[in-house]
Design a protein that fits this description.
GO terms for molecular function: ATP binding; kinase activity. Keywords: Kinase, Transferase. Pfam families: GHMP_kinases_N. The structure is a single chain. The chain is of the alpha+beta class and about 300 residues long. The protein has one domain (about 5-285): 2-Layer Sandwich (Ribosomal Protein S5, domain 2). The protein has helices spanning about 55-70, 95-110, 115-125, 170-175, 180-185, 185-200, 205-220, 230-235, 265-280, and strands spanning about 5-20, 25-45, 50, 75-85, 135-140, 145-150, 155-160, 240-245, 250-255, 280-285. Strand 8 and strand 9 form a beta hairpin. Helix 1 (about 55-70) packs parallel to helix 2 (about 95-110), helix 2 (about 95-110) crosses helix 3 (about 115-125) and helix 6 runs antiparallel to helix 7 (about 205-220). The mean pLDDT is about 95.
């Protein structure tokens, strides 16, 4: 094989249902959505050097790790992103990029993009989300890197917004006071985790949304979102069940039963009202997603609301 092309898509997240620490070990439960990083990797087995879009340093790092692990001194290629996620909002953009790129490269090499292997690559670069696994997955994203698939995603609609800015995952996880914050909130996070597990096992979105709200409120003392309480009240008034947040990002989202908002017109009106009342810098509506790597049938797709 001289040249080969691989294509892979990895979902992003609407933050995390729960994030905190258990006995001092940080962990999170991702909230995968139908927004993606999609990478096309064209490999050359007889050259060196990589051609990537500007700023995709972490994708370059994972390709170098793959090259090293496979013992291939001559491996190069070009990376194109057919879909991308907003950066710095807490939508797992870095993890999704890294995962999509290494999965596409493995596919090009004729190897299976096994989730455990993808997670191993991502976690060598930075604290990472668990979007490479199917369903909702608990992961110790900083230290031990253990993970547990808890069950399939629960159908949900997310009305997501933020008010600008960006947060770097590495910087957040290295900040002073984070361990103390986790210790202080451990009992509440344990309560949220128990509710989330029940929600996943029982396909009970209300329990998941309550868990998300508990965890999001705990997060406020280290990642303040000034309109949290007014937005939560508005969500509940509109038939929502609670909120979910990006614990190391700027995103905050209302959680709604997907069957209660079936039409595009209803969703459009919801967007118009939240935009008028809260004037966000970013606004979108997502659906929950089953998680895990997708190998697209078509070469070109779009992230759409």
């Amino acid at each position: 094989m001289d040249f080969a092309i691989g294509l892979a898509r990895c979902p992003g997240t609407c933050g995390e249902w729960v994030q905190g620490a258990r006995k001092g070990i940080p962990f999170l439960l991702d909230c995968p959505i139908d927004r993606f990083s999609e990478a096309k990797v064209a490999l050359n087995m007889h050259a060196t050097g990589w051609d990537l879009p500007l700023g995709k340093l972490k994708s370059l790092q994972v390709l170098e790790l793959l090259k090293e692990d496979l013992g291939l001194p001559a491996l190069s290629g070009k990376v194109e992103f057919l879909q991308q996620l907003p950066e710095g909002k807490g939508m797992a953009s870095s993890t999704a990029d890294i995962t999509a790129v290494v999965a596409a490269a493995l596919i090009a090499l004729g190897e299976a993009p096994v989730p455990d292997r993808l997670a191993h690559f991502a976690l060598r670069i930075e604290p990472s989300d668990s979007v490479m696994f199917p369903g909702i997955t608990e992961i110790e994203h900083v230290h031990r890197h253990n993970h547990r698939v808890l069950g399939p995603a629960v159908p949900a609609l997310f009305l997501a917004l933020d008010w600008g800015g960006a947060i770097d995952t590495k910087v957040f996880n290295a900040r002073p006071g984070l361990a103390e914050h986790y210790r202080f909130n451990e009992a509440e996070i344990t309560r949220a985790y128990t509710l989330a597990r029940e929600g996943i096992e029982q396909t009970d979105l209300e329990k998941l949304a309550v868990a998300g709200t508990i965890s999001a409120r705990c997060n406020l003392d280290i990642n303040m979102k000034s309109q949290f309480e007014p937005f939560l009240s508005w969500v509940l008034q509109k038939g929502g069940l609670g909120v979910v947040t990006a614990h190391s990002g700027t995103l905050l989202a209302g959680v709604f039963p997907i069957d209660d908002f079936p039409s595009s017109e209803i969703r459009k009106n919801l967007r118009l009202e939240v935009n008028q009342q809260f004037t966000p810098a970013y606004l979108d509506i997502f659906n929950s997603h089953s998680g895990g790597i997708v190998v697209p049938k078509k070469e070109k797709t779009e992230n759409t609301g």
